[in-house]
Amino acid sequence: MISKITICNLALAQLGQAPISSLDQEDEKARRLNLFYEPVRDEVLRTHNWAFAGVSEPLALLEKEADSEGLFTYKYPVESLFIRRVFESKAPHCALPFKERFRADLHSRALAVSSRAAYAEYTRRITDENLFDPAFVKSFSLALACDLAVALTGDAQLASQILQKYTLSLDEARRSNMTENFLQAPSEDAFSGVR
User: pTM for the full model?
Assistant: First the structure.
């Protein structure tokens, strides 16, 4: 079972640092990990279209009438870290253009779309470590180590090496994600498709 402390200790191991037993302990490592954990997690979630964090759902319409540009205003999904695309249910493979706007009257972000019935595909914020994909755990721990490297070790070269590892781990995750998300009709094989 993956936990917050496991991910933090994976990051510390990349830095050659001793593990910690709690994020509540009074030392520099725990303070830095508490500071960086959530922002780095969200950044790594945004960086790649992780299958475990993907959501497709209808958007909540805020304005019943289109504005002067012919756009309808929708509530920005609360859990969304990154809107991947917007579409209509009757044409799910056709992406619709959209604009992100700030609504001062609602003190929140909104989406403007040229459809009265729009759906969004987005990456949502996942806070339960048990839902993390193993490839994400690896990438996240490397990104965390990279951000902590100079602060905890004073070694900029180590930070650079870990950044390279992080980049490679993201490339690896993209390849495996593409394979997992590949859909093929059950009755077809590679040979019948070329006949």
Answer: 0.85
